[in-house]
Predict the structure.
Amino acid sequence: MINSKSYSKTILNNGIRVVTESVKNVRSVSLGVCLTRGARDENKNENGISHFIEHLFFKGTERRSAKDIATEIDSIGGELNGFTAKEFTYFYARFLDEHLDKVWDLIADILKNSKFDKAEIERERGVILEEIKSFEDSPADQSIYLLTQALFEPHPLSYPIMGPSENVKKFTISDILKFKSVHYRGPNLIVVASGNLKHERLVGLVHKSLDFEKEVVKGREKSLFVSGPTTKKLHKNDILQVHIALGTRTIEYKNKDRYLWLILNTLIGGGMSSRLFQRLREKEGIVYEVASLLELLTDIGIFGVYLATDPSNMEKAIDCVWDEFDKLRKNGLEPDELSRTKEHLKGCLMLGLESTTARMVSLLENEIHLGRYVPPDEITENIEKVSEEDILSVAQNYLRPEIYSISKVGPKIS
């Protein structure tokens, strides 16, 4: 066991990692079980099955019906949910500290004893198909998904997390159980918790209930992404705005420059004082929403910009983005801009850590990508170390329009 003040980590004999952070003076616990496999670990015919399985875990076990699961968590004032991403799937709960044993029994039960009943599968199939329709009805979501396609095709990172409707309609119980048996293995599981709890207590509960066999699981191979910039378009004539996403591939999460990228992302489009917000909304008045986006994965990352505007302003809005990139590359930072951006970023990060759920997510991300705990002081120290020269060096390499892919969703697009 690794123990450092509030942080503890134990690796069980079957490979399951138990990682906790004790937070004093709170009454809540946020607890999650993460499978370090997600949509990128599916093949084309399997695409969407991780998300389907996540849904089915809440549909009943040998001991509990779907209603029992919902009633049990509601009866203690807690929250229970699941989430599927490109690289992981996790199930999480937030509850009062006195209910740790009860909530763990519930989570362990759905992980180990879900029935995958045929009738429930058919009902949930319909629910997921409606969820896909909601996604397809959202031009903002569609523009970012199309950008992901442009950056990563034909790699599975370009797949939609919910999968295409055609796949969801044909998944069988055999497909589901096969995928589950391949991926839901001890070394792929992380139990993570933050809040008012004792590490040893949670380790004992996990050891008692998640009796996966000891085995070696093959790690995910690093992928190569070599496709050049491209443009994706989706015509939707029933909306009034065009939704635009511009992006490029960048570094992986564990890269030492991730703090530099956090600052650059904040500076470009991370708040009301950011360059793009001030230019496109405050000065030009041609957008309501504009933001930069940064997603760092195990072996690659995405940096980009999302905005929505009237089709008549589409080219002007894109030109404004390129112009702001060009200004930063050529003219550098304004006086005090770096220090203001650092303070904004530190404030957002530290305020977020007042939530046990946010702390749990941070704990989980660092365990997945770094295999260790990153204390708040280390985060702020690394932010402070970033210099203007660091920012300009990355800007020269990455803020160049010719390396960006573009997606456009809306009417009258060219």
